[in-house]
Every structure is written in structure tokens, then in C-alpha cells.
User: What shape does this take?
Amino acid sequence: MRIINKNLVKKLEKSGFSENEAAVYVALLELGGAFPSAVAEYAGMKRTTAYNTLIKLSVQGIVNEIEKRNKQFYQPEKPQKAVRYVDGKKRRAEESLENVQAILPEMDGLYGANGSRPQVTYYEGLDEVKEVFLQMYEAKIIYGLADTKNLFEVMSAEFFTDWRNELRKRKIKLRDIVTANSAEYPTKTIALELQELFSRRVLSDEYKNIGTDILAWGDKLALISLGNPITATVINNPGIALTFRIMHEIIWKATKV
Assistant: This one.
């Protein structure tokens, strides 16, 4: 690219010009006018790309096309034409947005009609995973298969104290199946805080550390990986949530208090 004012090219791109449009227009401004081959060389692009871009800008009224030596020669129009071009793109974009917003209810209806389609949301890092636990305030019962001890080591115990206080205020039950390492602490603390709202079962000693928490409430299932960084995947689907609750019940009956 031989263009001198490359900064102007970038400014035009930010204003709504495509990369090729900005380069071709600035090339013409600096050259004062040129044949397509010269524009291509100056702007650092293929001749066909430069030619097609010149035609597009000519149609938009930004450049002027004339015949010179039996060839097409292009000159830049006044910069005010570029302003009108960008303004036109802006108005068309606003109209497109209005049109999409107008048909949004219809699209939502079609999307929601397929109730079997799971909605999957991914969360990464402590702050985002905390949002998953806050979503559980909408629950009546939370079903957990949890490595609670490891969870408390990854996330702050203070956060979960506040979380359980909110569960108690809302009378939300927590039904936990925990690893053997979690049996003494923190589940005894949880039992004291939630009292009759909390019930638990303990996995056998061979499952001391599983490194993952699975929690289900309503139509949602959260898979929380206790790695670095901590992550969570929340699946919103009635069938999947029901399947986990059935599996939870089977394990519940097969484990000790």
C-alpha cells in the first residue's frame, strides 16, 4: 500500500466504510483521480477488487466515472458526498433494526415452540459462577451432587453463608448428595444454618473427590467444574433436569445419611 494518510483510512472504516472502500477512496483523494490499475497498486489490492469497489462507490455517488483514452477513469467527488453515503448507511441500518424488532415476537414464538431445544449458557470465573448460584433463588428445591469441600476451597465460604441465609429466608430446600470428604465439613455447618430445609446423603469413601458440582432446580441443570478457572454450564431444559432428578433419587436411596 502506497497510501500516505493511512490514519484517514482507519477513520473512514470506523465511520462506516468497508476496508476496501476506505482504501480506494483515500487513494483517489491522494491521486486526484486514476485508472483502476493505478488505484489497485496505490491501495495495495488486486485489480478486480479495486475495480469492483470503484463501481460500488460510483453507484453511491462518492466517486465520478469518466471515459479517458477509451478507458474508465475515476475521480473522487466532494467529501460531503461521503458524509451523505455514511448517513444513508446509518438510516438503512436503523430501518433494518426496526424491522427486526417488529418481527421479534414472531421469531420468539417459533423459537419457543420447540420446547425440546436446550438453552445452554456458559460461565467462567468466580464472579460469573456466583451468578449461577443466585439464579437458584427462583427454586423451591435444589438437588445437588456436590464436592462441597472443594467448592468451598475454590469459592469463598462467606459467599455461601450469605447464599444459604437467602435460601432460608425464601424457604428453599437443599437436597445434597456429597462426597465423603465433605461429610464433616462443611455439610454439618450447612445443616445448622438451614436446619429442616437441608437434607443430605454421603457417597462412599471411594468417591472422596470428584472435582465437580451438579445442581438442578426447576428446569435448569448446572455443571460446575472446580478447575482453574472455575466454570459452569447451565442447561435449561425440562427433560434433562428431570433425568438428573431421577438419577439423584436413585443415588439418594442407595447412599447413607
User: Anything to note?
Assistant: The chain has a mean pLDDT of 90. The two ends are 74 Å apart (CA to CA).
